Amino acid sequence: MELVKLRYVKNFRDLGGVKTVDGRTVKSKMLYRGATLKKLTEKDVKLLKDEYKLSTIIDLRTKKEAEEQPDISVEGVKYIHMPVLTEAAVGVSHEKKVHSFSSLKLMPPMQDMYVNMVKGKTLNNVVNIMKTVLSLKDEEYAVLFHCTVGKDRTGILAALILSFLGVDRDTIVCDYLISNRFTRTKAFFVYILLLIIRFNHKFAKKIRFSLLAKQIFIDAALDTLEKDFGSMQEFFKQKLCYTPEEAARIKERFLV
Questions:
Q1: Are 201 and 195 in contact (CB under 8 A)?
Q2: Contacting residues for 71 by C-beta, under 8 A, at least 6 apart
Q3: What are 69-83's pLDDT values in tens digits?
Q4: Which of 12, 24, 36, 124 could cross-link to 255 by cystine, CB 3.0-4.6 Å?
Q5: pTM of the model
């Protein structure tokens, strides 16, 4: 998993190089995960297009998030807006309105938020995005999928794609936890700020916890899918609706 170093955009990495349980490797410069691209520099754009072969961007944010903090337009790169969430969700989405103290007080546990993202209409959204990522034309790769921070919605999608390709749970969790390299400092400063402003340790700790990548969060999502469908393989079979031949052909595309 190569970290892509950009000037201001953080938590951007290549899913390539990851080993599968059958001994194959995810190809590099095919699948990227990241955060909002609102601060891409001209140098960043050139690097992404020339060195990393970026051809498609899939924006997982809500319509309001994308309007408030639009991605920098990259000439020659296809942009697709496919929201995971159809409306704001405190703790996951980052519209201006969800950052109020009144909204944050009502934030449910992050484990519950992750479970909700693999249920009902939101799960259907995730599956549709996953199928899009896996079925682009050859010339439309490499593809980047991103949300605002690159941790929650992006983390779930990355976990499902890696799982489909045959990567084991421990490796998937390791990839997810890499986000802490980029969120830990902000989480600490938000914690201190809330202690100063609100004098409420429990509240400050809750918000700090939500800003981090925790194994219990991603485990909650994956465990829910295994419980609801019996196994991850059965989930892929029922929701992706690929024949065994189609699934094998898609995997060949991303594995070496």
A1: yes
A2: 36, 37, 38, 40, 57, 59, 79
A3: 999 999 999 999 999
A4: 24
A5: 0.93
